Amino acid sequence: MIKQLKEDIEAVFARDPAARNTLEVLTTYPGIHALIMHRMAHELWKKEYKGTARLLSSFSRFATGIEIHPGAKIGKRFFIDHGMGVVIGETAEIGDDVTLYHGVTLGGTTWNKGKRHPTLEDGVVVGAGAKILGPFTVHKGAKVGSNAVITKEVPEGVTAVGNPARYIFKDKNQIEPDEVSRRDYAESIGFQPYATTQDQSDPILEGIRVLLDRMQKNEKRMNILCQRLSELDPTFKPQTSKNQPLSKEELKIIEEVRRECEAQNKTSSI
């Protein structure tokens, strides 16, 4: 118990630059207070003193603002920063070196008995206000952004953001091949879609995906048509926009727009 407490205090120093000394951590950090009381309550829970365990858990909630069910399994070097409003359900499982910020909920989505809360593997970081709901796993090293709502499994090493959550992959090879092709094409035509990431549910971004796919298919068909025309007629040479000069009408329109802009600038300066 003492060795585990020492590791928990060391985790505070490793992850909170505001921590100055051991006495300060022991006396002023509600995350440490809640963790000490939970470890005691969890031992009581395992020994079938469940009423006493729940009573200690309730006192911990009153004293710290952090609610951890005594049945929850928590690993080593667990750190709750700030802590107020954190809720951890009965069947939640938390690995080693996990960090939670204030307002995090590890909750369930069913009233049935059995496993109904999430499992957080080693090294997971959950930002303030995030809600992780359901009996699935947030895999090793994953990060959950502030106020994200997670209702399905989170792969290893990714960052989950938004409501509903979408995943940001560090490694491009982890992204689906269709998405890689779509992004490569968008980059090749100079298009920079904002936040078009995997599992994004925004209908506007879904529309952008459809348009990019359609443009890519049309461009391939045009290239095939140009190739076939070149085979039929050797004199056919497709012109690109770079080689095609602007017509007199186009130059005239550009000049009119330039003059209109200058006139507006003069009016605004007056």
TrEMBL record:
Tell me any Pfam family this protein matches.
Hexapep
What top-level branch of life does the organism fall under?
Bacteria
Pathway(s) this gene product operates in, as recorded in its UniProt entry: Amino-acid biosynthesis; L-cysteine biosynthesis; L-cysteine from L-serine: step 1/2
Q: What is its EC number?
A: 2.3.1.30
- Which cell locations does it reside in? Cytoplasm
Q: Does Amino-acid biosynthesis appear among the keywords?
A: yes
- What SUPFAM superfamilies would the database entry show? Trimeric LpxA-like enzymes
Membrane-spanning segments: none
GO molecular function per UniProt? serine O-acetyltransferase activity
The chemistry this enzyme catalyses reads:
L-serine + acetyl-CoA = O-acetyl-L-serine + CoA
GO-annotated biological processes:
cysteine biosynthetic process from serine
Q: Which residues form a coiled coil?
A: none
Q: Which GO terms describe its cellular component?
A: cytoplasm
The enzyme class is: transferase
- Kindly state which keywords UniProt assigns to this record, in alphabetical order: Acyltransferase, Amino-acid biosynthesis, Cysteine biosynthesis, Cytoplasm, Repeat, Transferase
- Which family does the record assign? Belongs to the transferase hexapeptide repeat family.
Q: Name the chain's protein.
A: Serine acetyltransferase
Q: What is the lineage of its organism?
A: Bacteria, Pseudomonadati, Pseudomonadota, Gammaproteobacteria, Moraxellales
